[in-house]
Amino acid sequence: QVQLVESGGGLVQAGGSLGLSCVASGSIFHIHVMGWYRQAPGEQRELVATISRHGSTDYADSVKDRFTISRDNAKNTVYLQMNSLKPEDAAAYYCKAGIVPTTDYIYREVWGQGTLVTVSS
Description:
By secondary structure, the protein is mainly β. 0% of the residues lie in helices and 60% in strands. It has strands spanning 2-7, 10-13, 18-26, 28-39, 46-51, 57-59, 67-72, 77-82, 91-101, 108-111, 115-120. The strands form two sheets. Strands 2, 4, 5, 6, 9, 10 and 11 form a seven-stranded mixed sheet that branches. A four-stranded antiparallel sheet has the order 1-3-8-7, with no helix packed on it. The chain is elongated and about 45 Å long. The termini are far apart. The model has no long low-confidence stretch (mean pLDDT 97).
């Protein structure tokens, strides 16, 4: 069983910063791309940022130059540093990873349960 657990969400004032973490645990053979997505109430889930195992990153235009994604392969962890937060950044943030487990060596995409980010204006 493989799972992702996010942490670090909370309430922050507009213009402030917040850091999210997501740890993958379980019977893991390999983790490919890891990423962060978000979903505001009444909206579709959208990509925030992704990072390859070797560190190549991709960002949504709305967060470029404000958010930074990083990962620690030794810890099976992906991070999202969010700076200059805006009210429109408020959402549930979800971690996703492409994982090959040792149980069957079949690639699958795994989602975390989400962590809530609230930005007050």
